[in-house]
Amino acid sequence: MRVIKPCVYLNPAEISKEKLTNIERAARVCYKSEEKMGVKPSSDFLKGIISRGHESVIEHEKITVYFVVDRGVSHEIVRHRIASYSQESTRYCNYTSEKFGNEITVVEPYFYSDDEKKYKIWEKACLTAENSYIELVKTGSPQEARAVLPNSLKTEIAVTFNFREWRHFFKLRCSKEAHPQIQQAAIPLLLRFKEKLPPIFDGIGYNENFPVQHYAEIKMSDPF
Asked: Do residues 130 and 174 share a domain?
């Protein structure tokens, strides 16, 4: 059994300033103020759009992100309806094959990392699930054997939201009321969005008390 930490892949091209320009151009159609377009996108104009709640115009652009998280976290991500998803399939992926190292991969729950007793209980449960899965695959198929796989199983999911849905996602998933492991991935991603696309995402709050040392790594690259 392989144990990993969660991470998020974000291609730099997905958060380019050009997307802000496209949003501004579309928004200015509403006011017929296209002549005010500058060489660079206007932060003041875009912030004004957001402050007035005119968020329909930010639906003209989208961003795709690749999450590497556990199955439980992915279940929260796919609750967002205005989206496109492509997820690693436990029906078709056979974790007993060489391609997967003849083992399952699980995501470590960070909140057990400093509690040896709880960590051992979690680790034992995952190992038991792995052994059961391997035995079931021998006499059946991966799509049947997946019934015993744990919530901690690693999954990769490509997520595409338009800008408006990303704002909705961050407002829900970066809150202190959200599950700790979705906060773990969502908060550092929001901070990267704030850095690269401030007019759209600056005003979104997040749980500033979440332990920074447990933030998921944001990898600025294509996952392949």
From this structure: no
